[in-house]
Each structure stands twice: as C-alpha cells, then as structure tokens.
Amino acid sequence: MKPEFSFYDREVYQAISFVKVELERDAGTLHKWHQERHVSPFWNLNIPYEKYWTHLEGFLADTHQTLFLGLMDGVPMSYWEAYWVNGDVVESCYDPHPEDRGIHLLIGESDYLGKGYALPLLRAMVHFQFLHQGTEKVIAEPDIRNKKMIHIFERCGFEKIKPIELPDKTGMLMFCEREQFERRWKDVFTAAESV
After folding, report:
1. The CATH homologous superfamily of the domain defined by 5-191
2. What range(s) does the N-acetyltransferase domain occupy (predicted)?
3. pTM of the predicted model, to two decimals?
4. Exposure string (b/e) for 49-80, b if CB count within 10 Å is 16 or more?
5. Is 86 exposed, middle or buried (0-12, 13-18, 19+ CB in 10 A)?
6. What is the pLDDT of residues 10-64, one digit of tens each?
7. Cβ-contact 34, 45 below 8 angstroms
8. 49 backbone dihedrals φ, ψ, rounded to 5°
C-alpha cells in the first residue's frame, strides 16, 4: 500500500499514514469496522456485506470525495472520507469557499481506542488537507450526540459553528482555519520526520 501522506509523529512515536481505499482489498475490513458498537450508532451502516459493497462502490465512484485507510506504523486502524464541500450535502449549511474541504473519520480497530490516538490522527489528516494550497478551511460535521469526537475536533483546532440538519443526522458544523491550525501545531509538523 503506497501512502498518499505519511510522517512520523514524535508525540505518539509512530508513523501515521493515509492510503487510498481499494474496493476489493478493503471492503471486508471496512464492513467489519462499520458493525462495531462504537461506530454503528453514528454511521448507520450496520448493513449486510453485499449492501455495504454496493455502498462502498458508489462512494469510491463519487469524485467529490477520496476515501482513505489511516495506518499507524503500517497497520490499518481507521477510515477517513476527505471531501470537497462544494458538491456535498453540507454545502447548503453555510457559504462555502470553492476550495473548502471536509472530513469524516472513524477508528475501526478497538485496540486503538482510548489510547490518545484520535487527536494525532485527526491533526495529521487536517495537515494533509492543508497541503492543497487553495484550501484555507477544513470543516467537520460530527453527530451532535458524539461528544467525544466533538471534543477531539476542538482540541485539534476546530470551532463549533452551529447545529445543522443533514439527511442522516443532526451534526455540529465545525470549522478549522488554516492560520490558527498552523500556528497551533507548527512545532509538531516542523519536527516531523518524513518516512
């Protein structure tokens, strides 16, 4: 698996990397993760494998988003959707800039829960999104019931904007501006070693 982005995070002493999802290689793993008790209430994808395959096939064909596996030291343990706000259902919830990006995530492997990995992973993905020079804002809209995830987004540098109604949930619209993010985490990424 060739990563699209990778760096060594000195805070967790692990390489964090993101690789593009491939249908045949990853459908089984992603389906398993979406059935987990800590995931299914927020993702609503507790569906049979055949239906999940069709769902994932459609998502991979959607050109406004890119799907990634998140790896720590080469082990797949999280799932990410990085999307352009324009063309997404959330675009009607605020006045987006054409190059605003958004992210969705889940930690699929339960062995990685509760160990402080969510923030370094999220921070790495946001940094990855800001490598696109035209992007000045990354948004998120976690389920308003998911207090833990909202807290992680805030620790990363996202600010709560407002609750929004989406087809599958009530989300908390959150913004992360490039300038504040880079100021907050400058030392982390300056010190990062390429891997």
Report:
1. Gcn5-related N-acetyltransferase (GNAT) (3.40.630.30)
2. 16-179
3. 0.94
4. eeebbebbeeebeeeebbbbbbbbeeebbbbb
5. middle
6. 999 999 999 999 999 999 999 999 999 999 999 999 999 999 999 999 999 999 9
7. yes
8. -55, -40
The residue assigned the tokens 């967790």 is 12
- At how many degrees (to 10) do helices 49-61 and 23-34 cross? 120
> Distance between the two ends of the chain, CA-based, in angstroms?
14
What is the mean pLDDT of the segment spanning 126-152?
Answer: 96
> H/E element holding 173?
strand 169-177
What is the DSSP pairing of strand 75-84 with strand 137-140? unpaired
Q: For residue range 85-119, what is the model confidence (pLDDT) as tens digits?
A: 999 999 999 999 999 999 999 999 999 999 999 99
Residue whose C-alpha is closest to residue 148's, from 23, 39, 69, 24: 39
Number of other CB atoms surrounding residue 89 within 10 Å: 13
Using DSSP bridges, classify how beta strands 169-177 and 137-140 pair: parallel, antiparallel or unpaired.
antiparallel
Q: Where are the domains of the chain?
A: 5-191
Q: Which two tokens stand for residue 122?
A: 């999220």
